[in-house]
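Choline transporter-like protein, pasting as requested.
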Amino acid sequence: MGIASLLVIRGNRWGFVHVGVYNKGFVQASSDTWEMFIRVGLVQLIDLDLTGVFCFLSGVGIGAICSLVSGIWSLVMHKSYATEVSIYSFLIGYFMCRLAIAWAQACVSAYYVAYAENPQSTQFDSTIPVRLEQLNRSQALQIFRANNLI
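Structure tokens follow.
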């Protein structure tokens, strides 16, 4: 568990934003970004971010569709190559989908990093502060319930 925690601090996807903007090394950029998240209080929100899961599942879904279509075609045309064609088409479909929606994941990551750098900027709406307030309220409610105060 300690190794996983160290990997989150030293190597995370949000560090790529600092690599691109400030020309830092990846490990230093990841550490700096994670320290900013801790300082601003975004760690709980970052832990609940489902962007990566959505991108992964979209890739698997598109890969499965590609595999199904090519497998059917291959069974009709060349039965002896159906397995290989299905596997290759799944991999190609998965990676093409991941490449296509990587910009969405990068935009969300850049938004979190930009907010962490300057939370008082007028360019941001109230989405992140409202969500953080909701998370804090639900956490306080769970503490009260655990202590039988409600």
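Note for the archive: Helices lie at 2-10, 15-22, 26-40, 43-47, 51-77, 82-117, 127-146.
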